[in-house]
Each structure stands twice: as structure tokens, then as C-alpha cells.
Design brief:
alpha/beta; two-stranded antiparallel sheet; 4Fe-4S; 8 strands; Uracil-DNA Glycosylase, subunit E; binds uracil; 226 residues
């Protein structure tokens, strides 16, 4: 795969974002080892007019960090994209590569941390440092009234981004949190290989989160949320 950095919206981190020294060093190492991979901050993927924002954790090494599209090419993406298709939130067929023509409809995927962290574990400082790159695209989503957080880290970053208070928002699968301006955050266990293999998260449990998001969208579509 050949990657030429294309012009990015102002809400996206630059291709050579220097903010997190550990993540920059890891990215440089992987650029040497895998020059054909993306190896850069991974841009959000989806519709600018999305009603649903889905907050992930961080690129997977062989997934988004390789392909340059969130969740694309790794195990977590298989369940996520199948679920999006099932709920009418995508058009086209997901084929685990960024040029498969897949389009999200009504939804957007944004990782809480844009660069690949070693061992899939960003530090608290890296999560904090990357938060402007969650805040900026979220602020640029005028229609997004419902958010789904995939896992604890995404939950924490999403609550802070949406202006909520963490002590009031305990993470739990299918837990719902109303933000001060009326936007609603639904938590889900992350659709990682570990969670699905151990059955902590089943496809049915994951689908219940999206079904609830759609139910809330339909209930709130007549009320005025930001
Ligand atoms: O949270 C995740 C996991 C895998 N790939 C992503 O882009 N985000």
C-alpha cells in the first residue's frame, strides 16, 4: 500500500504530530521497519453530519496504524464494521482496507489517542495530550447528539470532551450518561479480540448498544439538542 498524506481538516493532528515523544519514537521505529504502512496519527473516519460519534481507544498496530483508517484491518474492526452495517450505519462492503469504498452513514469513528501506543496502552499523559484531537472534531459535529465510548479510556476521554464530570459517570456496558448540554454518551465494552474471545463482549451485547443509540436518536430527534 502506498500512502501520500492528503490535506487534512484543521481538526486533525498533523501527519508528523510531535506532541508525545514516546509515540513519536515508536512511530519512527515502525516507519523504518514497515515503510509501506501508514505509521502516523490516524484521522477520524465517517460523516461530518453524523448524528452518532463513536469513540475508540487508539490505532491497532496491524490495523489502523497499518492502513490509516480507524479499526480497519484488525480484529476489532470485524465486529465493529459488521455491526455498523447491520444497523444501516454504513454503505458498501468492508474489506479491511482503506480503499474498499466503505462509507459510514450517520456515524463517525474517532480514536481517543491518534497514534499507536506500545502494547496498546497509552499513558494518562498521552491520553490528555491527544484530547484536543477528540475535542476539535467533536466540536465540528453539529448533528452529533449521541456518542458511544468503546472501553474505559474512550469513556473517560469522551466524558471530558463532552463537558461531563467523571465522578458522576461510572463506566459500565450499556451505561448511559447525559452530558450538561443534553448529548448522551453510551458505554460499551471495547470490541477487542480479548473481550470478544473471552465473551466479556458478545455480538449481541454490542448490538444492544447500537440499538439503544438508534432508539435514543429517534426519541430525541424532535427535541432540540445542540
Ligand atoms: O480502539 C481501537 C482499536 C482498534 N483500532 C482502532 O482504530 N481503535
Amino acid at each position: 500500500m502506498e500512502f501520500a498524506p492528503s490535506p487534512l481538516p484543521a481538526t486533525e493532528p498533523p501527519h508528523d504530530c510531535p506532541r508525545c515523544p514516546r509515540l513519536v519514537a515508536f512511530r519512527e521505529e515502525l516507519r523504518g521497519e514497515f515503510p509501506g504502512w501508514w505509521n502516523a496519527p490516524v484521522p477520524a473516519f465517517g460523516e461530518p453530519n453524523a448524528w452518532l460519534g463513536i469513540v475508540g481507544l487508539a490505532p491497532g498496530k496491524h490495523g489502523a496504524n497499518r492502513t490509516g483508517r480507524p479499526f480497519t484491518g484488525d480484529y476489532a474492526g470485524d465486529l465493529l464494521f459488521a455491526t455498523l452495517a447491520k444497523f444501516g450505519l454504513s454503505e458498501g462492503v468492508y474489506a479491511a482496507k482503506p480503499d474498499d469504498g466503505l462509507k459510514l452513514t450517520g456515524a463517525i469513528l474517532i480514536n481517543a489517542v491518534r497514534c499507536l501506543p506500545p502494547a496498546n496502552k497509552p499513558t494518562p499523559e498521552e491520553i490528555r495530550t491527544c484530547r484536543p484531537f477528540l475535542e476539535a472534531p467533536v466540536a465540528a459535529l453539529p448533528q452529533a447528539r449521541i456518542f458511544i465510548a468503546l472501553g474505559q479510556i474512550a469513556h473517560q476521554s469522551a466524558v471530558k470532551t463532552l463537558g461531563g464530570r467523571l465522578p458522576k459517570c461510572t463506566f459500565g456496558h450499556l451505561a448511559e450518561h447525559r452530558m450538561p448540554d443534553g448529548r448522551i454518551l453510551i458505554d460499551s465494552y471495547h470490541c477487542s479480540r480479548y473481550n470478544t474471545n473471552t465473551r466479556r463482549l458478545t455480538p449481541e451485547m454490542f448490538e444492544a448498544v447500537f440499538a439503544r443509540a438508534i432508539e435514543l436518536r429517534d426519541q430525541t430527534s424532535s427535541t432540540s439538542l445542540p
